[in-house]
Input
Amino acid sequence: MLMLSAIREKTQGIIATIILSLVIIPFALWGTYSYFEGSSNVNVATVDGTDISQQAYRLALDRLLASNIKPEILQSPEFKRQVLDNLIEQTLLVQNGIEQGYRVGDAELARMIREEPAFKRDDHFDPALYQAVLRREGLNEQSFEQRLRTVQISSQIETGFRESALPLASEKDTLLRLWLQQREFEYIVVGPARFISSTQVSEDAIKQYYESHPDAFKTPEQVRVAYIELSVADLARDYQPTEEQLHKTFTEEQARYSTPDLRRISHILIEVPSGASKEDEEKALEKARTIEKKLRADGDFATLAKENSADSATAAKGGDLGTVEPGALPKALEDAVKKLKPGEITEPVRTSFGYHIAKLTEYTPGTHKTFEQARADVAKLLRDRRAEEQFYEKVEQLSNLAYEHPESLAPAAERLGLKISQSDWFSREGGQGIAANPKIVEAAFSPEVLHDARNSEAIELAQDKLVTLRMIDHREASRKPLADVRGEIQTLLQKQQAQESASKLGSEIYAKLREGQSLAELAKANSLNLEQAQISRINPKTVDRRLVTAVFKARVPQADKPVFGEVDLQANGRAVFAIKSVKEGVPSEADASLVRRAESVLQQRRGAELYRDYLSRLRETADIKIYADNL
Amino acid sequence: MSDPYTEQEQVEKLKQWWKTYGSALLVGIALGLAILFGNKYWTDYKQQRAAAASALYDQLLQDYRKKAFDDVRKTAGKIIDEYSETPYAGLAAMMVARVSFDAKQSEEVQRQLRWAIDHASDGGTRHAARLRLARVLAADGKIDAALALISIKDTAGFESDYEELRGDLLVAKGDKQAAREAYARAIKHLDATSSYLPVLNMKLDDLGPETDT
Output
């Protein structure tokens, strides 16, 4: 009985072990990651079977939130879509990389991280800094390195595609030929201006326009607010400190009213290592004395410093330590230096470093204000401190009073001795004065202020400036009455009519031109200027862009038979042209900068843009599903 | 809870089962593990080779930047000979084509691009090489050969480049109408943010309007 149960336990044990090992082995090989990821998550997209989780998408958005992009932009659907597109592209690149066999090895990856300037301190890779930067960016090492690999692979492909473009001379010539092609033509422009005076706009037409454009001529919703401003600058203006306080502060804050003696010093250091023998100590002193002797015999300090000083950082600069404030040097050295006049040198001075010989190169004596000289400054200091104290007290009071009496600002203003000001009308777009601040606008149009007519919370405009406000007047969005916009509509309709007339006359002229009349005659008959032009695509001079496009789209005239055309210039009327001749561009006549431009346009198209095609190919051949509801 | 007889019977059954299926099960498990580890080994091996080719390719790009063109050829040769199954071989061949182009070695340019078209493992690279070889042929006056080279079905992602090239070739052949249609397709497939749009429009406009009125 006992034996049997032991066997049973053992057999169960063996089977359990086998089953368990079958389950464990795959985990050991591939990690648990791919088994659990995505199983219970909400996804925003699936790219060829790989899910992009909502979490990953949120993380990408959050990272952008931390940057300085405006929240309105971040909330827009286009932007969200762009973030998603970016994630999809990354996923595609990773998938493609794996599938095609692109790879960045660990050694290569390590090199990239080591060479990244953001992870360097004093020109050397700093692992602690690397960790810190990643933490700040909210990334773990694994996902960062994964991203780095992706970036590197895309850069390998991009560079390859870009740099291997072949700059064919024939292609460059084609471009230059087209750019430099010259077209000689004459043209007239029938402008609307001459028809304005003869336009007739009826009252009915104005009314009809007003009624058929219900969304035009609107004024937005507007408010006016009353507000209390609490500012450090306005407080304690009349505060007069007592004589006693002034004296006390003057003594306490001596450093504010004086500047220290400043000495610029050079030194030569003969090093004595700690724990040196007596012999070495004497040797060092002897060497210092020799140098001192040379210096006193007009030896050049800078040269001797360069040759002898153990302080290698300053030795190169002739021993210059720069300007030192009191307390910056070891005590013994400072005492010795204090006795010097500019240009003089000390005897060898022993400090913990060894023997120094110092030279005073510049001396600026400190200044010390008397109490009377400093009186105004001391008074201001006390006033500022007082104002700051009062500010923090009053901030508290203002918040409380505005909250306890939500229906009025008066109690707070009275108790704190502040005045109530009023703003002009402003809309959600903001306005003049205080309404120029977006925080004020936001508060004024918040539901508590706008709908419940309560005081706003205290709004911090700056560290030392606070405002609380309430609405005193409100105007709904409305439509301007017809009477106010009558003139505006009239002008608009006049312009429309004039434009139509110009267009009609232009077309008539074009028809006559094709029947055989010359453009010169027609111009004269209609008292229009006949303009002459000879331009190329690359240099269209001052000719209207739309006319240029039409002229270069037109046929090439054959055997002295001009080619005619007309163009709608919208608000500028209508143009009619006659092309007389076309002269092919000669590539060899292009100047150097134009040649460079052609080269760079082609390099871009045949190189870098091919990589973009590469990416869009990935997109086109991938099976991408987007779950827009989860964005 | 159970009498010894039943337990005895159960153990017997288990033994019987083991006799019949035991060896098959062991062979199955061994085979499974072999496939698992074999596959893992094979993947690791491929990854190692890819990483080695990748490092060589980075070296090649550095050499190119330093204008050490002989070294570019040497490194590229190594990638193409020893790592031809990796996608870096195709990129290396295109780089050698560029270096040879600058050295005016037209035959070598064509040889490298052809190798990339025939052997590059990455479809994107094959397209880039094909487009470039066709332009090289056209510059040599071999318009029909170029047209034949780009007569392929799958141009996904690269449609605009193929159509522009087709347009250029048709202009060279004097077939204005077909060229117009090719350019129009090139414009249709162009990325909306591309700064190349004015050039394509210019090529199209230069052919004049379809109907002469």
Residues 153-213 of chain B form one domain. Chain B has a mean pLDDT of 92. The longest helix of chain B spans residues 4-65.
